């Protein structure tokens, strides 16, 4: 029972740390005015990396051994652990899925940032791709995510037009 109590303490510390990561990942992002759509891709790539690292740690043999010992001891801490494990998996899947969909937009980011009104020819294809993301992505199809993406696309168009006007 002494070993079980020590292992439960360890799992409770991990649980607290994982909860903190999840809470921080859901907080509203503060971004500079005028940030473009590539920032959205970078955000999700960073988030994917963080959650994948966390998943790798959770699936490590050391953690699995501790969890199996606590399962054998019928520890009550495992209920919280399993919930968090599921939350981390969902967050990792969301980030991976969002990166995959945003990469479909990546080919438009260069022409969009090009300091020329020629970028306008790319807008219909860009909007079709955004529509496809909205219609097919299980995670990115919320008004919050789409508003953020459209804001960044609009910022990029405005910045490109400003640059074009100032250079011309």
TrEMBL record:
GO biological process: microtubule-based movement
Lineage of source species: Eukaryota, Metazoa, Chordata, Craniata, Vertebrata
Record-annotated Dynein heavy chain tail domain positions: 5-166
Pfam families the UniProt entry points to: DHC_N1
MF terms in GO: dynein intermediate chain binding; dynein light intermediate chain binding
GO CC, alphabetical: axonemal dynein complex
This protein's name: DYH8 protein
Domain of life per record: Eukaryota
Organism field: Poecile atricapillus (Black-capped chickadee)
């Amino acid at each position: 029972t002494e070993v079980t109590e020590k292992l439960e303490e360890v799992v409770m510390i991990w649980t607290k740390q994982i909860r903190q990561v999840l809470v921080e990942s859901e907080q509203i992002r503060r971004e500079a005015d005028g940030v473009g759509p590539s920032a959205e891709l970078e955000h999700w790539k960073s988030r994917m990396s963080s959650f994948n690292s966390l998943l790798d740690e959770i699936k490590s043999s050391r953690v699995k051994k501790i969890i199996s010992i606590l399962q054998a001891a019928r520890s009550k801490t495992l209920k919280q652990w399993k919930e968090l494990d599921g939350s981390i998996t969902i967050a990792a899947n969301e980030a991976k899925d969002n990166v995959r969909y945003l990469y479909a937009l990546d080919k438009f980011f260069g022409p969009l940032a090009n300091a020329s009104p020629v970028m306008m020819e790319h807008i219909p294809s860009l909007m079709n791709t955004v529509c496809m993301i909205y219609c097919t992505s299980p995670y990115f199809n919320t008004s919050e995510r789409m508003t953020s993406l459209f804001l960044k696309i609009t910022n990029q168009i405005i910045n490109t037009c400003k640059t074009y006007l100032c250079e011309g």
